Amino acid sequence: MALGDYPVRASIGVTDIRRAVGFYEGVLGLVPESEGPSAGIEGGARFYRAGQGTMLNVFETPAAGGTASTVATFYVDDIEAIVHGISRAGGEFARYDGFGQDEHGIGPRAGGGRIAWIADPDGNTIAIESDH
């Protein structure tokens, strides 16, 4: 029995679920499948279904703290369309010196493909990647 045989879900801690909902739903366009309590906070967690049966859990916790390293990655077919849509919804993609990103924040990914990064209101970094 190996842990790698089981599904995994990304969970992202935030300091304010209402502010986070504005980002994850309003900017990223995710649709909540359900909500529940978190650390005694009624309605403090949102569960977003993503592709291929995966799930993203965003939950309020006093232990939340932003991280500059990537906490979740979405693998997409058309990175330009996704990035442009998120930008139109008010999202601002990170720019890093020396990464060769274009004016939209899309750059080459190590090993091939392309990548862009965006941070939620707590500074948690989300990556958008494409093999094209």
UniProtKB/TrEMBL annotation:
Lineage: Bacteria, Bacillati, Actinomycetota, Actinomycetes, Micrococcales
Name of the protein: VOC family protein
Signal peptide, first to last residue: none
PROSITE patterns attached to this UniProt entry: VOC
Organism expressing this protein natively: Leifsonia sp. NPDC080035
Cross-referenced InterPro entries: Glyas_Bleomycin-R_OHBP_Dase (IPR029068), Glyas_Fos-R_dOase_dom (IPR004360), VOC_core (IPR037523)
Domain VOC: residue ranges: 6-131
